[in-house]
């Protein structure tokens, strides 16, 4: 099957790493199914990509923090008679602050978005891939999942789940012609920090942020090359290596220094 007959479904596909991943698929003549919360943003990206790359772009506006949304997306795709050849689980958010101070409903929404939507969409579309005997899945984890994350405790916890779950299903599927890749970005120049109300953190104010286009290219290349995992960026590779050598208490202290507000005293 030529790429222009294949579809890639990308969640969080209207900004950040998601739109850059979608752009790479479009450049390779994959048709797209873009999922995001706001129809207006989806329509704008769809018009742009269709005109620039001569592909079909389907859009589905859903809030993936709702438990039923991934099931509704799967049903909508089937109703439109579309086949998902590549699933990209990318959408995710965090919340900034000490766990004791954060809104529990917001935290639970983040768990559903960062974990629930990934496993539900994967479970649904994987069954079709297994029946066909082919498919690709790219899960966007994070180096945040490789270390404790004071001031983003739930976000780090959700990404720890994504990282280990993705590697687990990669192993289960490696002999079934279903390829699973895991992309681990570090802090990236996207709207994530604004949505998390995290712009005051040292990480945002003083540390270099990765280019989302470069991060997306690392993930795309890993998926197409059959790699099970890629850490994007040399600095992030070093950070993960150091975290793996440290006890959790030391890694937590180091991460707190990176994430604390710039005006907060030691």
UniProtKB/TrEMBL annotation:
It holds the Pfam family adh_short. SUPFAM superfamilies: NAD(P)-binding Rossmann-fold domains (SSF51735). Keywords: Oxidoreductase. InterPro entries: NAD(P)-bd_dom_sf (IPR036291), SDR_fam (IPR002347), VLCFA-Steroid_DH (IPR051019). One of its GO terms (molecular function) is oxidoreductase activity. The keyword Oxidoreductase applies. Belongs to the short-chain dehydrogenases/reductases (SDR) family. This is Short-chain dehydrogenase. The gene is dltE.
